[in-house]
Amino acid sequence: MQVISREEWGAAPPKNHLGRISGPVSEIFVHHTVTASGPPDREVELMRTVQQIAFDRDFSDISYSYLIFPTGNVYEGRGFGVVGAHTVGHNSTSYAMSLVGNYESEPMTDAQVDAVRQMIEEGQRLGFVTSEPTIQGHSDVSSTACPGTHAFERLAELRVNGVRSFDGNGSQPEFPGILSLGDSGGHVCTLQARLRELGHAIDQVPGCPFGPQTEAAVIAFQQSQGLDDDGVVGSLTWKSLFA
Q: Could you list the residue range(s) of the whole structural domain that residue 78 is in?
């Protein structure tokens, strides 16, 4: 992982004074910029574009703490210790890792997953992030599709101190509570991604609604495991999914 400082990518100075965050935070939010993500030799130019968009919207500076390209290169936004402008109600109590690109239409790369994980670990090492932060997508707390369905599908890999969830060797993602028909959001994205890995056909839809297709996949999985086939994801079904 390479971290490119503000000086290195030629960031303009903030328009106004930026507040400081006191003490380690327990929240990390993942966003996406919905701007161009490449080619790699244009990353510096694309970073300046993201900052200019923030200025055009009357923000004091680029909104996010760090920004990560598909290459895995990390660019310093506001950085650790600085109040952000990324998640209403959480800007002074969290840091934002923003994926450069549109992750409704492009996949989050392995390099990005690793880079986000390493940045969280670096924040922990430096005392800016607690030992067990919650890692959420923007849409977990706001009415938005951010950070995009493809990014949401990989958030579970960043949880539990960054241990991958689906490789058979890591820790299970924490049971989020009962999931059933009509639910949506990040936990359903995680559920759907796991079911796809197990061979079930579920269309990728923004927001990851738990519809009849997901219910049918859950029932089929429950039947294969000898569980009550009610189509509701309780703790036993969740545990079996990630065993």
A: 3-162
